[in-house]
Amino acid sequence: MAKRGKKYRAALAKVDREKNYDLLEACTLVKETSYSKMDASVDLAVNLGVDPRHADQNLRGATVLPNGLGKKVRIIVFAKGEKAAEANGLGVDAVGGDDLAKRITEGWLDFDQVIATPDMMGVVGKLGKVLGPRGLMPNPKLGTVTFEVEKAVSELRAGRAEYRVDKAGIVHTSIGRSNFTPEALAENARTIIDTLLRAKPSTAKGTYLKKVCLSATMGPGVRVDTTPFKI
């Protein structure tokens, strides 16, 4: 195991590794133990009792966080006609079709989210090898393949957290920044956990909500008591 730095060891000393903290207490501790000089991302990891090999248990979706994510989101939109004009009126970072696809294939990737109207997916589909590995491919489940362009843009700007269970059955997602109040972080975390609970597959067996952990980009993990969330 790699040797940890002095700052990390000092932060870790503040955390009881055997304790499951109350959510608000955990959010406070994550802020206290973040040793980055910048406003670090605060991330949530949720270990679920699902088997992602089964399609109905391969959870993926998004939810708008009540306190946002604390960062500006650069959005591009694939659309034409009236929907392209609508997107331009919303002040997104780029709007287009084949011309926009060409920019991307030539190496332009200065954006964080991609929205596409359904009639443009033929163009966007050709960018799968570029957008897919970066998690940028528009998806109906995430609300980014839609004719409701204004709604999609508004949600992304408001701060929408996307979640997807990995091969180990764990969901990793951001819930804000280290400069958020503990209360704001806790409210965001609770929103995601509640969303995951509502999304529980009927075929999932045994304990569904196994473990919950919070951490800053540079900071130790803090375990959260799942008892209040059990269903």
Give the class from helix and strand content and strand pairing.
Answer: alpha/beta
Taken together, the total number of domains comes to: 2
Radius of gyration: 19 Å
Number of helices: 8
What gap, in angstroms, lies between the N and C termini? 37 Å
Annotated CATH topology of the largest domain:
Ribulose 1,5 Bisphosphate Carboxylase/Oxygenase
CATH superfamily of the largest domain: Ribosomal protein L1/L10, rRNA-binding domain
Task: Give the spatial strand order of the biggest sheet.
Answer: 7-1-8-9
Low-pLDDT stretches are none
| C-alpha geometry | globular
Fraction of helical residues? 25-40%
DSSP, total strands: 9
Chain-averaged pLDDT: 92
CATH class call of the largest domain: Alpha Beta
**CATH architecture call of the largest domain:** 2-Layer Sandwich
Report on the biggest sheet: 4 strands, antiparallel
Binned strand content: 15-25%
Order of helices and strands: HHEEEHEHEHHHEEHEE
